[in-house]
Backbone:
């Protein structure tokens, strides 16, 4: 475990009732955030990626992708930032060229035209973030990784 991952893990263990993140004029507690991080970490760990694995995260100004970032750090993984604000054709081209073992995102981003088809063709696992701080789940049909993608890490 790296210094950074142990530091974040320690911070998550502090007062679970304390406010941590303000989003859309509502505060969310450290405990809720920790549960989201733990849920996502469990899903990522179940894939057997190991240290230094590349984890694609569809970034947004939203608490759940932040939980995905912290989960990746806690696993000593490599964060690959994916911009879901790109037009559909460019987003799909990026996903295809990145050849990621796993992609994490919000439903609204994963359901964009062509995204799931591109990820299926690439052999990527897909984890949907359940807003806000409700956890994460592997999408049906996307629970396994093409092992060739793991070797690219």
Residues:
């Amino acid at each position: 475990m790296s210094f950074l991952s142990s530091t974040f893990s320690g911070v998550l263990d502090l007062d679970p009732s304390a406010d941590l993140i303000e989003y859309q004029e509502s505060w969310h507690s450290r405990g809720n955030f920790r549960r989201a991080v733990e849920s996502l970490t469990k899903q990522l760990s179940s894939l057997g990626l190991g240290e230094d694995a590349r984890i694609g995260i569809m970034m947004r100004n939203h608490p759940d992708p932040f939980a995905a970032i912290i989960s990746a750090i806690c696993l000593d993984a490599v964060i690959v930032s994916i911009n879901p604000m790109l037009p559909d054709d460019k987003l799909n081209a990026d996903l295809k060229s990145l050849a990621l073992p796993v992609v994490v995102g919000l439903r609204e981003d994963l359901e964009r035209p062509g995204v799931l088809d591109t990820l299926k063709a690439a052999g990527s696992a897909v984890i949907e973030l359940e807003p806000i701080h409700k956890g994460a789940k592997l999408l049906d049909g996307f629970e396994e990784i093409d092992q060739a993608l793991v070797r690219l890490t």
User: Anything to note?
Assistant: The longest strand covers residues 125-130. The mean pLDDT is 90.
